[in-house]
Amino acid sequence: xxxxxxxxxxxxxxxxxxxxxxxxxxxxxxxxxxxxxxxxxxxxxxxxxxxxxxxxxxxxxxxxxxxxxxxxxxxxxxxxxxxxxxxxxxxxxxxxxxxxxxxxxxxxxxxxxxxxxxxxxxxxxxxxxxxxxxxxxxxxxxxxxxxxxxxxxxxxxxxxxxxxxxxxxxxxxxxxxxxxxxxxxxxxxxxxxxxxxxxxxxxxxxxxxxxxxxxxxxxxxxxxxxxxxxxxxxxxxxxxxxxxxxxxxxxxxxxxxxxxxxxxxxx
Length: 267
Fold this sequence. Notes:
The chain is α/β, with parallel strands linked by helices. It has seven helices and 16 strands. A six-stranded mixed beta sheet has the order 1-3-2-4-5-6, with helices on both faces. A five-stranded antiparallel beta sheet has the order 11-10-9-13-12, covered by helices on one side. It has a three-stranded antiparallel beta sheet with strand order 14-15-16, with no helix packed on it. InterPro entries: CheY-like_superfamily, LytR-like, LytTR_DNA-bd_dom, Sig_transdc_resp-reg_receiver.
């Protein structure tokens, strides 16, 4: 089902189309997507492209459009994925993104711009992708595939650990790094430090292909939280510095760049 308008004129359009793609399978999550651009025709075209791709992917969603950052920020809904034009009137796309991050840190932000000028600023607000206008439909599809997959995976993957004859579920998205001291494992996460006992090799096997890397004999780090690095250490988003073993540096570089491409690459 879709609502639409015709003969769009930026000065008189009272509302913008709302696209709704119904669920294809029982239990499918209805994704909420926002498109924000102060150029009405650009906004409508982008929303329509997203709708066509999501239909092709058979993904249930609702797509809403906004003509300014202020209008988006005042919306009562919470959006899973937000497409933001950067060069809008105050607040511009970057300021809008900063305010969205303050409200909710887990939104997937995708910048759309006719210039590469703001690429590095986009990383400051943890942009998921940076698309250049005119947006290529094949690139848009790849981005939406990754974004929808990320929403499905968010906070879902976990490991089960044992302490004092009790089992505990640890969500991988909430873990910054594991610190190993013999058989003692300190889990450093968003809720503080949790300690239990496990062999490092067993833990490493559990975390294979989960975005973690053993950068040192004593550390397994969550690569999604790496904010920067040099040959000696990795700097995490929370400011913590983790040593990188000299012999593991090249492999670390390959893995962290792979994660960056998957979660925040520039197209």
